[in-house]
Amino acid sequence: MQQVTANIFVETGYRGCNPGFVVTDEGVVLIDTPQIPKDALAYREQIHRYGKPYCLINTESHGDHFTGNFFFDVPVLAQRETREAILRADAEALKDRIRLLDPDFAPQLENYRIRVPNIVFEKTLHLYLGGLTITLLHLPGHTAGETAVYIPEARTVFTGDNIFHQTQVFLHEAWPREWLASLETLKKLEADYYIPGHGEVCGKAYLDEQAAFIRDWIGAVKEARGKGWTLEEARERISFLDRYPMGPGMEAFGRELQKMNVNRLYALAEEGRL
Description:
The chain is an alpha/beta fold. The chain folds into two domains: 204 residues, Ribonuclease Z/Hydroxyacylglutathione hydrolase-like (Metallo-beta-lactamase, Chain A); 57 residues. It has eight helices and twelve strands. Helix 5 runs antiparallel to helix 6 and helix 7 runs antiparallel to helix 8.
């Protein structure tokens, strides 16, 4: 567990996203949850050392951010499109993933359910707790409902997966144009600490590097299409695995990720949205 400021913490070592929390005088605000049940249970114990959970914010709709919601009996907040995507999630597929990642938890899956956000917002939502302002900002990019959580008094922002700090980027459901615009919005925040969805805590300077990586992906796909490569040819030839490592526990998935990214960008290019 890493302490970012006096009252903001994040765990960057789990397989999946970086869950974090903000300690206030009125309770603990959670941002995302661990993907693996044993991690979620250990994480819950750590949180209770700092106070009682007040609410939980999901920054996006991928399973590594919301699977652990089940273990926290608090209101769950999310952007509307994130809630709608979680509602569409395949519960049985999620349980299969849990069996694979945490076999010891398998006997308890009969009682497991997806805990869907029950409070939604569209563009912006402000929470005022214990002298802190916690602002939720809809910043589409990595997903349609991607959300940043900004705490101005602490000069800190949880970016969700709009930042993958020096790790491979997932574009399989991305909107690259919107993502680049959202990175510009993040740059304008008065923040010193950017807590990414994946990778270590970074500063404002990294946002340009993140944008450059996304542009490199876009450029590679546009170049491939300009050369007349088929989708299958592009899937086999385009790779940025030499740029950054995969995240914890994802090392074997690197080649498949490159193909998924190509699939998405080719589809967007065909629609004129790249």
